[in-house]
Amino acid sequence: MIIAIDGPAASGKGTLARRLAGRYALPHLDTGLLYRATAAALFDRGRDLSDVEAAIAAARGLALTDFDEARLRTREMGEAASVVAALPAMREALIQAQRNFAQRPGGAVLDGRDIGTVICPQADVKIFVTASPEVRAQRRALELAARGEKVDYGAILADIAKRDARDSGRAAAPLKAAPDAALLDTSRLSVDAAFAEALRIVDERQGRRNA
Ligand code: CDP
Fold it and tell me: Which label site among 57, 110, 122, 177 has the fewest CB atoms less than 10 Å from its CB?
């Protein structure tokens, strides 16, 4: 079973994807880390975020495991990731590795922005996770504070608005729900309630597949 989870920044998709992967004993790929790691590699090499050739080389050189999450999950790296992620040629360089991951025997859970639309249009289950910008900013503030970053709620809310606009407005694989994705708005849901709803969606989709 391939489960595709997409949604905007801090919508709760990562947490859901991890829990679903645990529940069904499937490998999980947080594809945002690929874009974050590409941006980090460009910083390390002293390259500009708009340097397409360097971005392609960095993307091709990534291993899909052993990410330095403490470094990659910062606010700065999320912002940089969304800048490099708008380069169509660097996205191309990451497609095959993501598809290979999805094709593992038994399946996989992938989360990102374009999993249900571009990477795995044939996914068995697609969930598009949303939440209001204010709720997402609050969650992101808590997450960054827990990682020891200094947080400014207003700045995070502004980041989220900017990233939503950039991720949804780009020409290459924009953030949008696949027509056959189930929508899950987590604005008023606890983590457990969102997970229960996701399980219900998976059951429903599997039932439909087996019918
Ligand atoms: O955790 P959060 O949602 O803030 O970010 P992320 O999922 O780690 O993604 C960081 C950035 O990478 C996003 O703002 C997107 O621009 C980009 N991204 C993408 O374009 N396609 C994906 N499949 C995953 C992430």
Answer: 122
Residue with tokens 């038994």: 106
Phi, psi of 181 (to 5 degrees): -85, 145
* Per-residue pLDDT, 205: 92
Q: Which two tokens stand for residue 83?
A: 């800048």
Q: Ligand 1 within 6 A of 136 CB?
A: no
Beta strand residue intervals within the chain, DSSP E = 2-6, 28-30, 108-112, 125-130, 182-185
Q: Has domain 2-203 been given CATH number 3.40.50.300?
A: yes
Instruction: Give the residue, by CA position, lying nearest to ligand 1 atom 13.
Output: 82
pTM: 0.94
d(CA 211, CA 208): 5
Segment 103-122 mean pLDDT: 97
Q: Whose CA is nearest to atom 25 of ligand 1?
A: 32
Residue-range domain boundaries for the chain: 2-203
